[in-house]
Amino acid sequence: MVRGEGLTAHLVEYIIRVMRYSRNSLLAPLLFASVIALAHHSNVMFDKEKEISLKGTVKEFVFANPHVSILISVADANGVTTDWSFEAASTQGMVRAGWRKSTLKPGDSVTIVGRPLRDGRPGAQLVRAILADGTVLQSSAGGNY
Amino acid sequence: MVKINTVLRWTPVLVLASAVSQLSAQGPAPAEQPGALSKENLAKPRAKPPFDLTGNWMFSAQMNRDNGVFNFLPLPKLKPAAKALYEAGQKAEASGKAFHNDAGACWPAGMPMMMTRVWPNQTIQLPTMIVMMQMLKNEMRWIYLDGRPHADPEIKAPSYAGDSIGHWEGDTLVVETTNFEAKHHWVQTGIPVSDQFKLVERIKLKDDGKTMEDTFIMTDPVNWEGEWVSTKRWYRYDNSDIEEAYCLPDLNDRLPATGPSSNIR
Predict the structure, then answer these.
(1) Which of A42, A67, A124 sits opposite B101 (nearest CB)?
(2) Distance in Å, alpha carbon of A117 to nearest chain B alpha carbon
(3) What average pLDDT score do residues B230-254 get?
(4) Which of A125, B40, B61, B178 could form a disulfide with A46, with the two C-beta atoms 3.0–4.6 Å apart?
């Protein structure tokens, strides 16, 4: 099930696919530039050409502006856990994509796809989340970031 | 010994002299400018403006591809100090670090950066004033249309939005903004604003009122030569309202992009 379906959500998904399969294309960065929104701060610390997918347990979900914050605990193969911090969009943009204040709560299982920090710290910019019931939520919709 | 009668005789003179001395140091009280929302000011007869900007406006990356998207392009010829800062900023960004990202660290973005972020800009146009409220950190600007001159910098502090005075020229709203606060204030990455920064905007409404277009004409003799000109566009986004979105230090601490290790200063 995909909530928050709309032209923007489909466009983002499409462009991610285009980027994934056309890394060497000159067109890909242009397409990407068309949807990466600029927040209240610079976004250069995120790797725009890379996506990571992490399954973990929610430790914190802060539903606030200017950016929603998600903290999840991720266990590696040896059971060692690392806390990953995800920056999301504004509440308006997320609500338009189907998110609600009660969407995540501590203890929930979630898979999060994001653009990781380039310096290797455990942090990323949210691209989409897959909830325990399979619901897919994009990071934002409706033009808001 | 001074007689009490002598003291009493001269006291009023001394008090008056002291008051005159303080007045000359501080200047006379400024003339009363009727507020933009005063009934008297709003009721004055004025020509009908060519358009009404009232509405919510969203900055669009797609509509600004030809002018640098979030940056103001083309760049002017930068003065040596500004050029060095700009090049340091480019180098930092290429390495994945923000550079003097003061807006991210809760300093005001100010003009013109506050206009070019992807959150709605709620605009209310009155006969005497246009108020623009950015959802970006709830930054505000006031453009006075009531014929007043720029405020004397002796009586109005410099600010990040500046002192904006607008007038109509045919189908264009022309806004001149001066008296900027330069501290931690940037046009865009690596290009600072000095206290000599001046901004003229030529604003038009296009596409049957669906597009707002603003040509920014920026001068700053400290940081670049001549005029820096870039045109930006927004689309009408009336199926929304804005919300509180202050920059919060504790939230910033949680976000991976706004910590000190992500920002070269």
Answers:
(1) A42
(2) 8
(3) 93
(4) A125
